[in-house]
Amino acid sequence: ENNTTKYKRIILKLSGESFSRAGERGIAMDEVVSISQQIQQAAALGCQIAVVIGGGNILRGGQFKNESASIQEATAHYMGMLATVINGLALQDALESLGMSTRLMTAIHMHGVAEPYIRRKASRHLEKGRIVILAAGTGSPFVTTDTAAAQRALELEADILMKATRVDGVYSDDPEKNPHAVFYRTLGFDKVVSENLRVMDGTAISQCREHGMPILVFNFKMDGNIQKAVLGEQVGTLIDP
Ligand code: UDP
Protein backbone atom coordinates (compact mmCIF):
# COMPACT_ATOMS: atom_id res chain seq x y z
CA GLU A 1 0.00 0.00 0.00
CA ASN A 2 3.00 2.23 0.45
CA ASN A 3 4.60 2.08 -2.97
CA THR A 4 3.25 5.42 -4.19
CA THR A 5 4.55 7.74 -1.49
CA LYS A 6 8.04 9.14 -1.61
CA TYR A 7 8.18 9.32 2.16
CA LYS A 8 7.31 6.44 4.43
CA ARG A 9 7.41 8.33 7.72
CA ILE A 10 7.07 12.07 8.19
CA ILE A 11 7.03 14.55 11.01
CA LEU A 12 4.46 17.24 10.27
CA LYS A 13 5.04 20.46 12.20
CA LEU A 14 1.79 22.41 12.55
CA SER A 15 1.94 25.88 14.04
CA GLY A 16 -0.72 26.83 16.53
CA GLU A 17 -1.86 29.48 14.09
CA SER A 18 -3.09 26.75 11.76
CA PHE A 19 -5.83 26.12 14.34
CA SER A 20 -7.24 29.63 14.35
CA ARG A 21 -8.77 31.86 11.70
CA ALA A 22 -6.37 34.31 10.06
CA GLY A 23 -5.58 37.16 12.41
CA GLU A 24 -7.43 35.56 15.33
CA ARG A 25 -6.35 33.53 18.33
CA GLY A 26 -7.68 30.42 20.01
CA ILE A 27 -9.11 27.34 18.34
CA ALA A 28 -11.57 27.29 15.44
CA MET A 29 -12.66 23.67 15.02
CA ASP A 30 -13.52 24.11 11.34
CA GLU A 31 -9.85 24.98 10.74
CA VAL A 32 -8.75 21.97 12.79
CA VAL A 33 -11.09 19.67 10.87
CA SER A 34 -9.89 21.04 7.56
CA ILE A 35 -6.25 20.30 8.35
CA SER A 36 -7.30 16.91 9.74
CA GLN A 37 -8.88 16.09 6.38
CA GLN A 38 -5.58 16.82 4.68
CA ILE A 39 -3.78 14.59 7.18
CA GLN A 40 -6.33 11.86 6.46
CA GLN A 41 -5.69 12.08 2.70
CA ALA A 42 -1.96 11.77 3.24
CA ALA A 43 -2.32 8.90 5.70
CA ALA A 44 -4.59 7.08 3.23
CA LEU A 45 -1.57 6.83 0.92
CA GLY A 46 0.12 4.67 3.53
CA CYS A 47 2.42 7.31 4.98
CA GLN A 48 3.18 7.22 8.71
CA ILE A 49 2.50 10.63 10.24
CA ALA A 50 3.55 12.13 13.55
CA VAL A 51 2.31 15.66 14.13
CA VAL A 52 4.28 18.07 16.31
CA ILE A 53 1.83 20.75 17.33
CA GLY A 54 2.63 24.34 18.30
CA GLY A 55 0.82 26.60 20.72
CA GLY A 56 1.22 30.12 19.40
CA ASN A 57 -2.53 30.52 18.85
CA ILE A 58 -2.92 30.37 22.63
CA LEU A 59 0.35 31.46 24.19
CA ARG A 60 4.05 31.83 23.46
CA GLY A 61 6.62 31.97 26.22
CA GLY A 62 8.27 35.03 24.71
CA GLN A 63 5.17 37.20 24.98
CA PHE A 64 5.83 38.02 28.65
CA LYS A 65 9.30 39.44 28.02
CA ASN A 66 8.33 42.89 29.32
CA GLU A 67 6.70 41.49 32.41
CA SER A 68 9.73 39.76 33.85
CA ALA A 69 9.05 41.38 37.22
CA SER A 70 5.86 39.37 37.65
CA ILE A 71 6.51 36.17 35.70
CA GLN A 72 9.69 34.26 35.05
CA GLU A 73 10.47 33.48 31.44
CA ALA A 74 10.81 29.78 32.18
CA THR A 75 7.29 29.73 33.68
CA ALA A 76 5.94 31.34 30.54
CA HIS A 77 7.59 28.66 28.41
CA TYR A 78 5.97 25.93 30.47
CA MET A 79 2.64 27.68 29.91
CA GLY A 80 3.39 27.63 26.19
CA MET A 81 4.05 23.89 26.32
CA LEU A 82 0.71 23.36 28.04
CA ALA A 83 -0.94 25.37 25.27
CA THR A 84 0.32 22.79 22.77
CA VAL A 85 -1.42 20.06 24.79
CA ILE A 86 -4.73 21.95 24.50
CA ASN A 87 -4.22 22.04 20.73
CA GLY A 88 -3.25 18.37 20.73
CA LEU A 89 -6.55 17.40 22.35
CA ALA A 90 -8.49 19.39 19.75
CA LEU A 91 -6.54 17.79 16.89
CA GLN A 92 -7.03 14.33 18.33
CA ASP A 93 -10.79 14.64 18.43
CA ALA A 94 -10.96 16.23 14.99
CA LEU A 95 -8.93 13.36 13.49
CA GLU A 96 -11.01 10.76 15.31
CA SER A 97 -14.26 12.42 14.18
CA LEU A 98 -13.06 11.55 10.66
CA GLY A 99 -12.55 7.93 11.70
CA MET A 100 -8.80 7.93 12.17
CA SER A 101 -6.95 6.14 14.92
CA THR A 102 -4.76 8.46 16.99
CA ARG A 103 -2.52 8.68 20.03
CA LEU A 104 -1.69 11.87 21.89
CA MET A 105 1.72 11.75 23.57
CA THR A 106 3.16 14.50 25.73
CA ALA A 107 6.73 15.34 26.62
CA ILE A 108 5.48 16.54 30.02
CA HIS A 109 3.69 13.65 31.67
CA MET A 110 -0.01 14.24 32.15
CA HIS A 111 -1.74 11.12 33.40
CA GLY A 112 -5.41 11.11 32.55
CA VAL A 113 -4.93 13.30 29.51
CA ALA A 114 -2.36 11.66 27.28
CA GLU A 115 0.31 8.99 27.07
CA PRO A 116 3.83 9.94 28.06
CA TYR A 117 6.13 10.31 25.06
CA ILE A 118 8.33 7.25 24.80
CA ARG A 119 10.29 6.96 21.58
CA ARG A 120 9.83 3.24 20.98
CA LYS A 121 6.12 3.41 21.78
CA ALA A 122 5.62 6.30 19.40
CA SER A 123 7.40 4.34 16.71
CA ARG A 124 5.17 1.34 17.33
CA HIS A 125 2.00 3.45 17.07
CA LEU A 126 3.25 4.80 13.75
CA GLU A 127 3.93 1.30 12.44
CA LYS A 128 0.35 0.39 13.30
CA GLY A 129 -0.92 3.28 11.19
CA ARG A 130 -1.98 5.52 14.04
CA ILE A 131 -1.59 9.26 13.73
CA VAL A 132 0.68 10.23 16.61
CA ILE A 133 0.25 13.73 18.02
CA LEU A 134 3.30 14.95 19.90
CA ALA A 135 2.54 17.73 22.36
CA ALA A 136 4.37 19.71 25.04
CA GLY A 137 7.28 20.27 22.68
CA THR A 138 10.56 18.96 24.01
CA GLY A 139 9.39 19.26 27.62
CA SER A 140 12.10 21.87 28.24
CA PRO A 141 11.72 25.65 28.32
CA PHE A 142 13.49 28.25 26.13
CA VAL A 143 13.03 26.42 22.85
CA THR A 144 10.12 26.17 20.43
CA THR A 145 8.11 23.41 18.85
CA ASP A 146 10.27 23.79 15.73
CA THR A 147 13.12 22.40 17.79
CA ALA A 148 10.83 19.67 19.12
CA ALA A 149 9.90 18.76 15.54
CA ALA A 150 13.55 18.50 14.51
CA GLN A 151 14.33 16.44 17.60
CA ARG A 152 11.45 14.01 17.00
CA ALA A 153 12.20 13.75 13.28
CA LEU A 154 15.71 12.58 14.14
CA GLU A 155 14.87 10.18 16.93
CA LEU A 156 11.86 8.64 15.16
CA GLU A 157 13.97 8.34 11.99
CA ALA A 158 11.51 10.22 9.84
CA ASP A 159 12.34 10.58 6.15
CA ILE A 160 11.59 14.29 6.23
CA LEU A 161 10.42 17.11 8.46
CA MET A 162 7.50 18.95 6.89
CA LYS A 163 6.72 22.40 8.15
CA ALA A 164 3.22 23.58 7.25
CA THR A 165 2.92 27.36 7.08
CA ARG A 166 0.65 30.07 5.69
CA VAL A 167 3.14 31.02 2.96
CA ASP A 168 4.13 29.00 -0.09
CA GLY A 169 7.64 28.27 1.08
CA VAL A 170 10.93 30.09 1.61
CA TYR A 171 11.63 33.46 0.00
CA SER A 172 14.76 35.60 -0.08
CA ASP A 173 12.80 38.21 1.92
CA ASP A 174 9.33 38.64 3.42
CA PRO A 175 7.04 38.39 0.35
CA GLU A 176 4.32 40.38 2.11
CA LYS A 177 6.68 43.35 2.49
CA ASN A 178 9.07 43.03 -0.44
CA PRO A 179 7.44 42.47 -3.87
CA HIS A 180 10.84 41.51 -5.29
CA ALA A 181 11.36 38.65 -2.88
CA VAL A 182 12.54 35.55 -4.75
CA PHE A 183 10.90 32.17 -4.12
CA TYR A 184 13.19 29.14 -3.68
CA ARG A 185 12.10 25.70 -4.85
CA THR A 186 15.14 24.06 -3.36
CA LEU A 187 17.77 25.29 -0.98
CA GLY A 188 20.89 24.02 0.73
CA PHE A 189 21.38 24.35 4.47
CA ASP A 190 24.47 26.50 3.87
CA LYS A 191 22.40 29.15 2.15
CA VAL A 192 19.68 29.02 4.80
CA VAL A 193 22.32 29.77 7.41
CA SER A 194 24.47 32.26 5.46
CA GLU A 195 21.46 34.32 4.33
CA ASN A 196 19.66 33.87 7.63
CA LEU A 197 16.49 32.73 5.83
CA ARG A 198 13.38 32.31 7.93
CA VAL A 199 12.72 28.60 7.71
CA MET A 200 12.54 27.32 11.27
CA ASP A 201 14.25 28.45 14.44
CA GLY A 202 18.04 28.27 14.56
CA THR A 203 18.29 25.24 16.84
CA ALA A 204 15.99 23.23 14.57
CA ILE A 205 18.00 24.23 11.50
CA SER A 206 21.33 23.32 13.01
CA GLN A 207 20.05 19.95 14.23
CA CYS A 208 18.62 19.05 10.83
CA ARG A 209 21.73 20.32 9.10
CA GLU A 210 24.08 18.39 11.31
CA HIS A 211 22.17 15.13 10.95
CA GLY A 212 21.12 15.39 7.31
CA MET A 213 17.36 15.67 7.88
CA PRO A 214 15.60 17.28 4.89
CA ILE A 215 12.97 19.94 5.55
CA LEU A 216 10.02 20.82 3.35
CA VAL A 217 8.32 24.17 3.97
CA PHE A 218 4.92 24.42 2.31
CA ASN A 219 1.52 26.09 2.43
CA PHE A 220 -1.09 23.99 4.22
CA LYS A 221 -3.85 26.40 3.16
CA MET A 222 -3.80 24.91 -0.34
CA ASP A 223 -6.03 21.86 -0.18
CA GLY A 224 -4.20 18.67 -1.09
CA ASN A 225 -0.73 20.04 -0.40
CA ILE A 226 0.11 17.60 2.40
CA GLN A 227 -0.85 14.72 0.10
CA LYS A 228 1.24 16.16 -2.75
CA ALA A 229 4.19 16.64 -0.44
CA VAL A 230 4.01 13.03 0.72
CA LEU A 231 3.91 11.85 -2.90
CA GLY A 232 7.07 13.85 -3.57
CA GLU A 233 5.37 16.24 -6.01
CA GLN A 234 6.77 19.75 -6.34
CA VAL A 235 5.26 21.82 -3.54
CA GLY A 236 6.84 24.45 -1.34
CA THR A 237 10.58 24.70 -0.70
CA LEU A 238 12.75 21.65 -0.17
CA ILE A 239 15.86 22.09 1.95
CA ASP A 240 17.87 19.06 1.06
CA PRO A 241 21.17 18.14 2.64
N1 UDP B 1 7.85 25.73 24.25
C1 UDP B 1 8.90 25.39 25.10
N2 UDP B 1 9.62 24.25 24.83
C2 UDP B 1 9.37 23.45 23.76
C3 UDP B 1 8.33 23.82 22.88
C4 UDP B 1 7.59 24.96 23.14
O1 UDP B 1 9.18 26.09 26.06
O2 UDP B 1 10.05 22.44 23.59
C5 UDP B 1 7.02 26.89 24.56
C6 UDP B 1 7.60 28.21 24.02
O3 UDP B 1 7.36 29.21 24.97
C7 UDP B 1 6.77 28.43 22.77
C8 UDP B 1 5.42 27.88 23.17
O4 UDP B 1 5.74 26.75 23.98
O5 UDP B 1 6.70 29.80 22.44
C9 UDP B 1 4.52 27.52 22.04
O6 UDP B 1 5.21 26.84 21.03
P1 UDP B 1 5.60 27.54 19.63
O7 UDP B 1 5.89 28.97 19.83
O8 UDP B 1 6.66 26.72 18.99
O9 UDP B 1 4.25 27.37 18.81
P2 UDP B 1 3.95 27.72 17.28
O10 UDP B 1 4.68 28.98 16.92
O11 UDP B 1 4.42 26.57 16.46
O12 UDP B 1 2.46 27.85 17.24
Task: Name the descriptors.
241 residues, alpha/beta, Carbamate kinase, 9-stranded mixed sheet, two-stranded antiparallel sheet, 7 helices, 18% strand, globular, binds uridine-5'-diphosphate
- Give me the strand/helix succession: EHEHEEHEHEEEEHHEHE
Number of strands: 11
Q: Write the CATH fold name.
A: Carbamate kinase
Q: Count every helix, treating DSSP H or I runs of 4 or more residues as helices.
A: 7
What sort of overall outline do the alpha carbons produce when their principal axes are compared? globular
Please compute the radius of gyration using only Cα atoms: 17 Å
Give a structural overview:
The chain is α/β, with parallel strands linked by helices and 241 residues long. It has one domain (9-239): Carbamate kinase (3-Layer(aba) Sandwich). It is 35% helix and 18% strand. The protein contains seven helices and eleven strands. The strands form two sheets. It has a nine-stranded mixed sheet with strand order 4-3-5-2-1-6-10-11-9, with helices on both faces. A two-stranded antiparallel sheet has the order 7-8. The longest helix is centred in the middle third of the chain and has 25 residues, at 73-97. The protein is globular. The model has no long low-confidence stretch (mean pLDDT 95). Uridine-5'-diphosphate binds at residues 15-17, 54-56, 60-62, 77, 80-81, 83-84, 137-138, 140-141, 143-148.
